[in-house]
Amino acid sequence: MANEVRSSEKAFWSIISAVFFGNFLAVMNTSTVNIAVPAIMGEFSTHLPTVQWTVTGFMLAAGAAAPSAGWFGARFGYKRVYIAALSGFFLFSVICILSSSIEMLIIARMVQGVFSGIMMPATMTLIYQTIDKSKQAYGISLWSLSSALAPAVGPVLAGFLIDIFDWRALFYFNLPVSAGAIIAAVKFLPDTDKGEKTPFDFWGLVFSFGGSILMLTAFAKAGTWGWTDVKTLSLVGTGAFLLLLFVKRELKIEFPLLNFSVFQHRRFAYGIILNAILSIALYAGAFLVPIFLQTSLNLRALHTGLIMMPGAFVMAFFTPITGKLYNKIGPLPLIMAGLIVMAIGTFMMGELTIETTALYVIVWTSIRYLGIALCNMPIINVGMSAVPLQVAGYASALNNWTRQCIASLSIALFSGLIAYRSNIRLEAGGDLSTASAAAAGDVFLISLIPLIIAVPLTLLLREKRQSGENKILAGQKVKNQ
């Protein structure tokens, strides 16, 4: 019996190692290039709106590709899909290093984003398919640690590498980590079954991609154009219409790119809403804090990363503890506590001014990350554990598509809001640094609104009695459809 326990424990950590680093890379690459934007502008002698596509293009492509992960996983098996995505990520990291023009770099980053968008839902699904149910909550806590830790660690690593080498060092770093993840996936991940041949929903992908890019552009430009400008409203309206067509199409066709029928499971639907709110809060900090530190306090990239590091350590410490507590006290107390802690930290970050000290930022950023550590995994697991195994891959893809789209739109929205609030503060008097500092605080307070709304929504996650057949069965492979 003792040997069986040790073998099960070894298998658990082997599987976690195989998915952890792949997911960490995918998420980290959405934020590290932010730090490299000035260096890339200098090398290619181009302007910020163009270079910014190395970041937004990656995120957009990842969000557009996420819906297809469910189809690819069900068709070819999630282990094969994950390894293929890791291999593509490795290849296009090499192409990013070899880029000789900004256009080549942007294209390479967007293709890299496609593979990233497939990797994230694939890793989540693999945990539910290959890990025993008794350890799924702990496994997802470690998976969510990789998702939440990457935006915090990324700026530190990026600042260090760029200061010592240059921006290409970010992509050199990807190579050994992705190669190691490929080897671990081949060696440690159990095989997952392939499904029947089904048609690929090309038009669904077109509607999803088109709607996402129009919405993203509108949110990013709203601060410059104005929120009521005809261009802003036209892009929002057209983008929303395309996304509506996408949802209607997916509900009608026999083989959808995203299976929206998973929303019939009440707890999964509420979990998606809370996951979207948490993503807004997470990326508010990941985006606003570096801007405040570098624009208002004029700190270097490395110093910015070091100030954000304590929060990363807090999250790294408490996330596994949350996984252990989940089975003892249940998800609701953890989610409620996490949201309240995050709301307190976010409110205090709303007090940012040009006089704010680095210690103040460290303390309240760490408080926010403590809140994330308490509620991130429970929100994911409470929703995913409510859906049947045969659609778990589609639920995972929908979960990650929502998170990626919300992250992209949040960054674009916060970018527009901080420009808008900075202009208002400038008109009221003061210099640019003072105005941008106060504007960062204003946007933090705006990001507090969804957190407040989320607190009572948590009560909707109360579990009704249901048979075990309606929940994900642990340790089973995907059955042929």
UniProtKB/TrEMBL annotation:
Pfam families: MFS_1. The keyword NADP does not apply. Keywords: Cell membrane, Membrane, Transmembrane, Transmembrane helix, Transport. It is a multi-pass membrane protein. InterPro entries: EmrB-like, MFS, MFS_dom, MFS_trans_sf. PANTHER family: MAJOR FACILITATOR SUPERFAMILY MULTIDRUG TRANSPORTER MFSC. Belongs to the major facilitator superfamily. EmrB family. This is MFS transporter. It comes from Siminovitchia terrae (Bacillus terrae).
